[in-house]
């Protein structure tokens, strides 16, 4: 199922390019996500981070390049198809069913995947405990704080049996006390075999959990490797200070 190239890669992106008119938002990006990694993606505003994520996950179609998941080319597959394959994601703009309850939001993926009802309910209860939303199961999603809604969207992605999860600014809108809750949950799910790619402006948070860091500027990868090395890379510092 996997090809070994030093490490077992889950996702491989080759020469990925996305244009909007005359603007090149993602320019010939090559990257590989290995099984069991937590990959942080950093870069200044407008660097192409979210466009890269959208293009990989199927929100946008690339203009050039290929995307492989578990050695199968999935370049042109839409978002929904990639989700069924095991590629989950959250969004900066939350995509919850806001008039449904917390519990109902978690049961929708279970119904879509035709999960065993009892097993799905047990999984949902455990995930709600992990993110400390177990006392809110009967509340409408719209009545939760922004941080709580982000936690709900996160665990709903897990309910879809996602093995590789992309997180787009996951701590945006969080109360500081909730950030650690999120990071602890991510690490617990990582210990169970989930792989993550996370765009995040909260540098201390991303440095705490990332096993590898990728820096992006002007639509290109400018550094990729050990988080501390990448963070202190002169080219990365220059990109932020501009």
Automatic annotation (TrEMBL):
<dbReference type="Pfam" id="PF00005">
    <property type="entry name" value="ABC_tran"/>
</dbReference>
<dbReference type="Pfam" id="PF12399">
    <property type="entry name" value="BCA_ABC_TP_C"/>
</dbReference>
<dbReference type="InterPro" id="IPR051120">
    <property type="entry name" value="ABC_AA/LPS_Transport"/>
</dbReference>
<keyword id="KW-0067">ATP-binding</keyword>
<dbReference type="InterPro" id="IPR017871">
    <property type="entry name" value="ABC_transporter-like_CS"/>
</dbReference>
<dbReference type="InterPro" id="IPR027417">
    <property type="entry name" value="P-loop_NTPase"/>
</dbReference>
<dbReference type="InterPro" id="IPR032823">
    <property type="entry name" value="BCA_ABC_TP_C"/>
</dbReference>
<dbReference type="InterPro" id="IPR003439">
    <property type="entry name" value="ABC_transporter-like_ATP-bd"/>
</dbReference>
<dbReference type="InterPro" id="IPR003593">
    <property type="entry name" value="AAA+_ATPase"/>
</dbReference>
<keyword id="KW-0813">Transport</keyword>
<keyword id="KW-0547">Nucleotide-binding</keyword>
<keyword id="KW-0175">Coiled coil</keyword>
<feature type="domain" description="ABC transporter">
    <location>
        <begin position="11"/>
        <end position="241"/>
    </location>
</feature>
<feature type="coiled-coil region">
    <location>
        <begin position="110"/>
        <end position="137"/>
    </location>
</feature>
<protein>
    <recommendedName>
        <fullName>ABC transporter domain-containing protein</fullName>
    </recommendedName>
</protein>
């Amino acid at each position: 199922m996997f090809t070994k190239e030093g490490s077992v890669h889950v996702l491989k992106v080759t020469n990925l390019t996305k244009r909007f008119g005359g603007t090149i938002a993602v320019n010939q990006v090559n990257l590989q996500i290995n099984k069991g990694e937590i990959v942080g993606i950093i870069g200044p505003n407008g660097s192409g981070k979210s466009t890269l994520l959208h293009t990989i996950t199927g929100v946008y179609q690339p203009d050039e390049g290929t995307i492989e998941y578990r050695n199968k080319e999935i370049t042109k597959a839409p978002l929904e198809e990639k989700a069924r394959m095991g590629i989950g994601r959250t969004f900066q703009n939350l995509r919850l069913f806001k008039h449904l309850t917390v519990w109902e939001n978690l049961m929708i993926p279970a119904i879509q995947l035709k999960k065993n009802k009892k097993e799905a309910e047990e999984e949902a209860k455990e995930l709600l405990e992990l993110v400390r939303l177990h006392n809110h199961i009967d509340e409408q999603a719209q009545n939760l704080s922004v941080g709580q809604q982000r936690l709900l969207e996160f665990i709903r992605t897990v309910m879809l049996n996602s093995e590789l999860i992309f997180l787009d600014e996951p701590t945006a809108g969080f109360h500081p006390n909730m950030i650690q809750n999120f990071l602890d949950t991510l690490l617990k799910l990582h210990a169970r075999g989930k792989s993550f790619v996370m765009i995040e402006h909260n540098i201390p948070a991303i440095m705490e959990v990332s096993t590898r860091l990728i820096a992006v500027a002007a639509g290109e990868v400018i550094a990729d490797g050990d988080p501390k090395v990448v963070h202190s890379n002169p080219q990365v510092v220059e990109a932020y200070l501009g």
